[in-house]
Amino acid sequence: MYRRLVIKLSGQAIAGSAQFGFNSDSLTHLANEVIAARNTGVQVAVVVGGGNVFRGNRAEDWGIDRVEADNIGAAISTGTPIGTVISCAREK
After folding, report:
1. Which pathway is it part of (predicted)?
2. DSSP assignment letter at 45
3. Residue 73 has pLDDT above 60, yes or no
4. Smallest Cα–Cα separation from 74: which of 50, 90, 56, 41?
5. What's the CA gap between 78 and 92, in Å, rounded?
6. pLDDT digits (tens, 9 = 90+) for 12-68
7. What's the pLDDT tens digit per position in 36-51?
8. Concatenated DSSP letters for 47-83?
9. Fewest beta carbons less than 10 Å away: which of 24, 60, 70, 73?
10. Contact 67, 30 (CB under 8 A)
11. Beta bridge partners of 38
């Protein structure tokens, strides 16, 4: 059995039936799944994708074109796990 688990939650999973943003039912479901995994004794790290936060109407409202919005989302998604790995390494 694994002792540590990294779960990457995509923006699409968090948005649920919406195209972007946050859906409370989806967040509740995902949180319960993470809690269930943690209750098995596994250490859980969660990485949240950021792409959907900058896509759709919000990016246009902010004057950000689609390519730049994708780049911002990728940078957020990439930066989060790096921070998690560093944090885990510091705990050892």
Report:
1. Pyrimidine metabolism; CTP biosynthesis via de novo pathway; UDP from UMP (UMPK route): step 1/1
2. E
3. yes
4. 50
5. 23
6. 788 788 766 778 888 889 889 989 999 999 999 888 776 666 565 567 777 877 777
7. 999 999 999 888 776 6
8. EE--HHHHSTHHHHHTT--HHHHHHHHHHHHHHHHHH
9. 24
10. no
11. none
Distance, in Å, from the CA atom of 35 to the CA atom of 44, rounded to the nearest integer, reads 9
- Vertex 39, ends 78 and 1: CA angle to 5°? 75
Structure tokens at 6: 């990294």
Across the strands, what pairs with 5? 44
Q: What letter does residue 88 receive in the DSSP assignment?
A: H
C-alpha dihedral (11, 14, 18, 23), degrees to nearest 10:
-140
**Residue of 83 and 37 predicted with greater confidence:** 37
